[in-house]
Amino acid sequence: MAGKEISVFVVDDDPVVRTTIAECLRNAGMIVTDFPDAESALDRMTGDVDVMLLDLCLPQTQGHQCLRMMRRQFPATQVVMISGSEQVIDIVSSIQLGAVDYLQKPVDADVVVSVTRKAALKVRAPREDSQACSTQGSEFVLGGIQADLQRAAELKSPVLILGESGTGKSLAAKWIHEHSERNQARLVPLNCASLPSELAESELFGHAKGAFTGADRDREGKVEVADGGTLFLDEIGDLSIRLQPKLLTFLQDKQAQRVGSNKIYQCDVRIIAATHRNLSDMCRNGDFREDLFYRLNVLQIVMPPLRSRIYELPDLVSGMLKRICERFERDCPVFDSSLIDALGQHSWPGNLRELENVLERAVAFLNGDLLTADEIRISHIPVQEAGATPDPGRGIRTLKELEKEAIELALRRCEGNKALTARQLGVSEKTIYNKIRRHGITVPN
């Protein structure tokens, strides 16, 4: 198989079977990691694994239960069930639950290599196509912010991505990683808002066997899994104040300890953090450590809200429709100016995520190949400054009017600073100067 080696997980509690299969696959040029149980395999599982060879009968989590988890959490990875059972019901159940194949023990070496290669072909081509177009597809979403992302990708310092929910912070982090020198290693995401406080340290730095009730084996933390690559700490503002000093220490020394262990390990990880919160206010209120903030805030990137990018709606809609229709496997509809005018009247509190959801809903129920304002179902909230009184007599505004209002609003908020205004709107400084002149905008002092 051309390209990178096939990545395989082998899960079997029989050490002879497990090592025999693993050795066969390694001899065939595959990257193989073997596990005695489903729990340890799921702990190490990432979306980069092509195939899992999974025993039906395991000591704790059974094969079919693990298969269900794999289909929910890692749907791209192909699962091949292996078992000594000849019961038809076991084979049928495995296939119905999503296994791509079923091998009976004792497994022939040539057969296991052939089946694994065949399974990897099912996932590798779609995954590589998706990865190839993800960077291209992000261009229309990231807009003028790409120049800042490119500079961040070329450097090695921590990155702090700020912006409202739905502005594309996760996509920006992925773009930076993919265009950095670390792109051959993993990008490991960790959402700090979803971490239970009692498990947060273990999730981040790992734990030793016996560290707490239920810790029946050693487990790597996310920093270890991301070694050589990038750790993306999403919603960093929600990180426990108790854990913040330990993250600070890791940022300074690149060293950490697993919970329940005295052994210090070292990892080469670049940190990208993101949040919709105002960390400066949190520092003043004592909810976020000021020294950690300064460590993270070396390279700051601000993702502009959609309401300040209204003039980009034609490009955003075009790109999103293409991506949506590829998922739906249907031809991409054309759209007229009425659609853009209608979308331009909304304040988009959910930003890009809300826009894509609105378009996906419209495409799902669209009959024909023309998408108009009639197919859009959103609350009609005009873009305006807080406290302003809406003018019901204005009707639908033109894109030119919306663009002028967006620039005037940004200039006021940036106190007339054109360079800062350009960054907030995600365009070049030259573009701002040209548009100020074209619209006859008076720059506030």
CATH class category label of the largest domain: Alpha Beta
CATH A-level architecture of the largest domain: 3-Layer(aba) Sandwich
Structural class: alpha/beta
What assembly state would you assign to the polypeptide chains in this entry? single chain
Number of domains: 3
Instruction: Give the strand line-up of the largest sheet.
Output: 2-1-3-4-5
Beta-strand content estimate: 5-15%
The name of the CATH topology of the largest domain is Rossmann fold
Helix content: 40-55%
For this entry, give a set of tags.
single chain; 445 residues; alpha/beta; Rossmann fold; five-stranded parallel β-sheet; 44% helix; globular
Write structural notes for this entry.
This protein has helices at residues 15-27, 38-44, 63-73, 88-96, 109-142, 146-154, 169-178, 200-205, 222-225, 244-253, 279-284, 290-296, 313-328, 337-344, 351-364, 399-413, 418-425, 429-439, and strands at residues 7-11, 31-35, 51-55, 78-83, 101-104, 159-162, 187-191, 206-207, 219-220, 230-234, 255-257, 264-266, 270-275, 299-302, 334-335, 370-371. It is of the alpha/beta class. The protein has three domains: 7-129, Response regulator (Rossmann fold, 3-Layer(aba) Sandwich); 155-302, P-loop containing nucleotide triphosphate hydrolases (Rossmann fold, 3-Layer(aba) Sandwich), CATH 3.40.50.300; 306-439, Helicase, Ruva Protein, domain 3, CATH 1.10.8.60. The strands form five sheets. It has a five-stranded parallel beta sheet with strand order 2-1-3-4-5, with helices on both faces. Helix 6 (146-154) crosses helix 7 (169-178), helix 16 crosses helix 17 (418-425) and helix 17 crosses helix 18 (429-439). The radius of gyration is 26 Å and the shape is globular. Residues 125-135 and 379-395 have low confidence and may be disordered.
